[in-house]
Amino acid sequence: MTITITAFEKSPDRGRGLARDMRVRWALEEVGEPYEVRLLSFKEMKEPAHLALHPFGQIPTYEEDDLALFESGSIVFHIAERHTGLLPDDANARARAITWMFAALSTVEPPIIDRATVRIQERDQIWYEQRLSMVDERIRQRLTELSNRLGSAEWLEEAFSAGDLMMISVLLRLKDSEILQDYRNLSAYVARGEARPAYKRAFEAQLAVFTAASAG
Predict the structure, then answer these.
(1) Quick one: which of 72, 97, 100, 73 has its CA closest to 87?
(2) Domain check: are 128 and 170 in the same one?
(3) pLDDT > 90? residue 142
(4) Are 133 and 49 contained in the same domain?
(5) What value does the mean pLDDT of the chain take?
(6) Relative to the CA of 27, which of 105, 139, 156, 191 has its CA 20 to 30 Å away?
(7) Of 196, 186, 119, residue with least CA distance to 156
(8) Has this prediction a pTM greater than 0.70?
(9) Are residues 8 and 80 in the same domain?
(10) Quick one: 100 and 155 in the same domain?
(11) Per-residue b/e over 94-132, b at no fewer than 16 CB within 10 Å?
């Protein structure tokens, strides 16, 4: 059975590759697995059929045979475990790559998402500038720590892994900000991820959905 994932019918990221189905698309492209995409409106995401797959009414979901998964990190981990190319064969290296997946989602991403929320929902509040400054400082702390660990290396470990896929996906949310630009090695790290053929194929596929929705 062909793998089916879900994605936004009209993505709020406006074709920038930030919606979380991008992470799953990228992983599937890296391992060479074909997949189909079922596009959903915001209304359909809250209907019983989709809630049966994702109890929180979000995207992406992943369906293959009798297996249904939700949460992008869990889906990418499943893909990485089932197919070669995203996790090292060596047990210790494999464990480290998985650790970086958790670090991306649990340590680096939360303040970055918080920043997006502040900028969208709190811009008109009197505390906006102070709140944004505090969030930016949290992000800079994490980026400094990550930058120090990466150093001049190409990837977080010896070879590209699911850990890099998730970390780069998270950092891409800062691509147009001055914050990421202040860390040259991290900016270069993100650029290396974007240059991978699998990333380009995934990005083009997601962008095509936005372009078609805009034209309609």
Answers:
(1) 97
(2) yes
(3) yes
(4) no
(5) 94
(6) 139
(7) 186
(8) yes
(9) yes
(10) yes
(11) bebbbebbebbbeebbebbebbeebeeeeeeeeeeeebb
